[in-house]
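Reviewer 2 asked us to include a model.

Predict the structure of this chain.
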Amino acid sequence: MWFRYILLFFIFSCKELNLDSFDFTQHVDSHNLRIFGKSDVSPEFLDKVAQSYDAMFEINSKIDESMREDYLSTTKDKNVYQRVGLESSFQKNEGYADKGNVPSPYRHNCTDFIWEEKRGGERQINEVIEHLLHTVTAVILNLTYKNDWDYNNSSSRLRMAMQEAIDKGIYDVSSYDDMKGDKEGYNHVTTQEYAYWLVLAEWNYFEPTGNKKQGLSGNDEFKLGLPEEIASELPIGHQLYKDYVEKILSVPDKDLIVSLFPK
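Predicted model (structure tokens):
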């Protein structure tokens, strides 16, 4: 495992200076993705997030180098970034997530936080993998392949794949009913979560992330947790995965990921 230098930066704008805020004072880079950490995030954890993303870029026979290059170029050209914060700080004050700004030119092309928790294990692994994959699917693939990954277009391949899973009773979106008044927000969240479950199942990652419910290969929200089940039951979703995710990303080594976030 190589050593990664944690780069520190400081924001000197008096207008933005707020001693009560938790600014993003550090970052690491991984495959053109800038990963910003708040000041109370441990540098070691930030590095492990980057290593987790690195693990998705191994070379194998299924990778389409041209598509991967397009993906990486979009990540860089569109200034896509990932935010990391400390869970205990957020629990004390939910405003913690909104305080502090990332520096220019990084602005809108991001999604959820990754939270550094008090201990490792399945919950922490899920926290990292889930929100990295949200960035992958809801931001980078959406920007790179807009027609197929457009969450607002009911005819996009992403929306049709999600609808397939809903219609077959595999993906239960009832927990998001309170968002239906915000059509764009509802479409964004439901497709983002669908894409996460789809990739997680294709990677056979439900167990290491603690998402497998007893008696199911998946869980109450997404019933299927195995790649062969996806191929059999969700052909539209499976083909979406094969045409994009499988050609750009590799399945991260489970032993490596577990070793990064031990219990």
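The longest helix spans residues 122-144. Confidence is low (pLDDT under 50) at residues 5-21. We have added this to the supplementary material.
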